[in-house]
């Protein structure tokens, strides 16, 4: 195989990846023609967002925000796609242009108005403090030396930050209200600040906490768009909201979730491990399939990218050595979660297009895991006895032909154990993508816990599922390894 063929062999898959990425990214013109807006919302934040057991908002009682959005979209004649992430990730995605709008029990503040345009107010809420049922804390002064939980980016967090020095408590940050509350119930924290309506709804559904003190920091809640952008969507929302208010439909929606006869969360009658598996089999299956799909596609592209980096790392020209070393250094040095947020939330501001969530996940895996595979491939080639190189070159073989015909077959045998280990790591690393809203097995677990409050049992089920698929992958990899070594 000559140099030209070798280059085609390795660069064509990368070109195909780029082309598929560009095809997958919808253009703004196409979106405008279809009148479909990308709306960001929170993971379960009751009573504003209530996911069903499949992790969607397609259920009968999806929450205040979802009922409002659905009613307005129908009245105003526009379509929308929901992007479900943590509240803080939603805000960042909105500001980067990845989202057209956001509705997530968002309080209107002067600070947020600097970068966000808000709709008319549809609800007014405040901040409340919740403690465990047996807690002796009754007022703010009792928090001295204590640990208080807040949800990142929310009014509860802002309020707690403003008084923590005065009352002498420490803060812990969470991306999910349910995790924050569960931590207080478990005794790992002493109190939690969160939006009052959400806490009241959670307490009515058995989260095991109680509210103490007065509701504070009351603020209006509204729909949001990036400042100066998507003004047509904002006008449609305001027009539809005015209609909801005049017809009394808005109050009916609010009463549905906040009155004494408010709807309750999904009740799980059988909370045994087998019962939880049976009642959530469909959601767990979907989450498992997404994890496997991410792992397989991510491994394929990471392997292609890694082999390219590995070959560049031992190329004849030192320039390619330097390029490979820099790429490997960068992507091995950036934490995978940071890389995922940069690609999904930061990159759209650079390329001028929104990134599909699955594409962002695959790109993250390709760059992060590919950098490690590149180092493995380079090390494998360099581990081949130098005499093999010399013998091949003495026979008149060009550098790249000697690499492909003589060194590569031996090098790949040496690197198989490390590659197998990296493949397993890649599968486990897919769980990190739940941070940007990928509905994998980990994100599915978080959603189900928000419904049934069975944290220990659900995480045990998820852990066993990961262990099973990793064990199967290990068996397959070991079988392939033995076949290649014989």
Automatic annotation (TrEMBL):
Instruction: Tell me the Gene3D superfamilies matching this sequence.
Output: MetI-like, Periplasmic binding protein-like II
Report how it sits in the membrane: Multi-pass membrane protein
The subcellular localization recorded is: Cell membrane
Query: Which GO terms fall under biological process for this protein?
Result: amino acid transport
Tell me which SUPFAM superfamilies the record gives: MetI-like (SSF161098), Periplasmic binding protein-like II (SSF53850)
Q: Name one GO molecular function term.
A: ligand-gated monoatomic ion channel activity
What start and end residues bound the annotated signal peptide? 1-32
GO CC annotation terms, alphabetical: ATP-binding cassette (ABC) transporter complex
Q: Where is the ABC transmembrane type-1 domain?
A: 288-477
Q: Main subcellular localization, coarse class?
A: membrane
User: TM segments?
Assistant: 288-314, 326-347, 458-480
The record's keywords, sorted A to Z, are:
Cell membrane, Membrane, Signal, Transmembrane, Transmembrane helix, Transport
Member of which family?
Belongs to the binding-protein-dependent transport system permease family.
The name this protein carries in UniProt is ABC transmembrane type-1 domain-containing protein
């Amino acid at each position: 195989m000559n140099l030209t063929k070798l280059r085609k062999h390795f660069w064509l898959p990368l070109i195909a990846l780029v082309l598929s990425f560009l095809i997958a990214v919808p253009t703004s013109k196409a979106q405008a023609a279809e009148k479909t807006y990308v709306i960001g919302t929170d993971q379960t934040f009751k009573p504003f967002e209530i996911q069903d057991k499949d992790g969607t908002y397609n259920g009968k009682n999806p929450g205040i925000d979802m009922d409002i959005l659905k009613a307005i979209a129908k009245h105003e004649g526009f379509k929308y796609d929901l992007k479900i992430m943590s509240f803080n990730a939603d805000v960042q995605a909105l500001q980067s242009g990845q989202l057209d709008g956001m509705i997530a029990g968002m309080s209107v503040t002067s600070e947020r108005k600097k970068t966000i345009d808000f709709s008319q107010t549809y609800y007014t809420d405040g901040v409340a403090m919740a403690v465990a049922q047996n807690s002796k804390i009754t007022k703010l002064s009792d928090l001295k030396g204590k640990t208080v939980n807040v949800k990142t980016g929310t009014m509860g967090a802002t309020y707690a930050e403003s008084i923590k020095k005065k009352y002498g408590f420490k803060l812990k940050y969470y991306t999910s209200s349910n995790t924050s509350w569960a931590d207080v119930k478990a005794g790992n924290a002493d109190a939690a600040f969160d939006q009052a309506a959400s806490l009241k709804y959670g307490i009515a559904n058995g989260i095991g906490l109680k509210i103490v003190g007065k509701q504070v920091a009351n603020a209006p809640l509204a729909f949001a768009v990036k400042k100066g952008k998507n003004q047509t969507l904002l006008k449609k929302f305001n027009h539809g909201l005015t209609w909801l208010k005049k017809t009394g439909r808005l109050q009916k929606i609010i009463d549905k979730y906040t009155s004494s006869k408010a709807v309750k969360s999904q009740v799980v009658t059988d909370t045994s491990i087998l019962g939880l598996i049976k009642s959530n089999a469909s959601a767990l299956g979907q989450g498992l399939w997404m994890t496997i799909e991410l792992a397989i596609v991510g491994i394929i592209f990471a392997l292609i990218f890694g082999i390219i980096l590995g070959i560049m790392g031992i190329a004849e020209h030192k320039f390619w050595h330097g390029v490979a070393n820099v790429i490997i250094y960068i992507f091995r040095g950036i934490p995978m979660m940071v890389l995922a947020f940069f690609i999904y939330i930061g990159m759209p501001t650079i390329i001028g297009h929104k990134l599909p969530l699955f594409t962002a996940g695959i790109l993250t895996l390709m760059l992060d895991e590919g950098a490690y595979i590149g180092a493995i491939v380079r090390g494998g080639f360099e581990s081949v006895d130098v005499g093999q190189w010399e013998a091949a070159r003495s026979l008149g073989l060009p550098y790249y032909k000697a690499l492909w015909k003589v060194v590569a077959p031996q090098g790949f045998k040496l690197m198989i154990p490390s590659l197998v280990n990296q493949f397993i790591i890649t599968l486990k690393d897919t769980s990190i993508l739940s941070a940007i809203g990928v509905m994998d097995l980990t994100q599915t677990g978080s959603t189900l816990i928000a419904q049934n409050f069975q944290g220990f049992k659900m995480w045990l089920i998820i852990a066993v599922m990961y262990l099973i698929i990793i064990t199967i992958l290990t068996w397959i990899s070991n079988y392939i390894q033995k076949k290649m070594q014989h």
